[in-house]
Amino acid sequence: MTSIEHAPTPVPTPPHRLAILDDHELIVDGLARWFTDFASDFTVVIRATSWMDLVRDPEFPVDLVLMDLQLGDTVSIESRIRACRAAGAKVVVVTAIDDDESRRRSLVAGAAGFVSKTLPADQLVDYARRVMNGERLPRHPAAASRTDAAGAGDVVDHHGVALSAAEEKALRYYAQGLSTVEVGRRMEVGYETAKTYLRRVREKYAKAGRPASRKAELIRRAAEDGYLE
Hints:
Blueprint: E1 16-21, H1 25-38, E2 42-48, H2 51-56, E3 64-68, H3 77-87, E4 90-95, H4 100-109, E5 113-116, H5 121-132, E6 155-158, E7 161-164, H6 165-175, H7 180-187, H8 191-207, H9 215-224
Parallel strand pairs: 1-2, 1-3, 3-4, 4-5
Antiparallel strand pairs: 6-7
């Protein structure tokens, strides 16, 4: 008797984990409801009305963040985007201010897209799908890096965590999405030195009762202490 071979049952793809960040709760709830009702390939795991609400949420990092351009805080859009990208999340900026300069700043910082809040919700869902499929808007040339004249011996204390100027600089670069190798190049030090700076930062946060062993945790600490401003 001839046996019949059956094709293996395909494994379903898990939905993309989505965060919505806007300082207007009505917009957050409206977008969350639309994605929940009409986009089964997404699951809304974070609804945030402030930057700190996003990075402190235990579900962070996610796969995609829909982020308002202007929030009522002091953290720049570039820092927010870079922190999300460093943690592994893609970012689409959704804004009422659809101007060339804001678009340029967002794309230079690493956003996968920049769309107006006038875009219909169904088109925003389609746009989010395209982003998760790897599509990106054209990139602008990278912005020039900031200069920092602080000496390596200076110490800055944030919430009981005293970092030297070199450790702070390494943390800022790392939280912006640079690798340890790139941090060393920016600081004009060797890889092992940059790695040591970041290890010391993690150790100091751990001693203060604020774990930072994982990359997402370290970015969260940087955001909490104002290093992403």
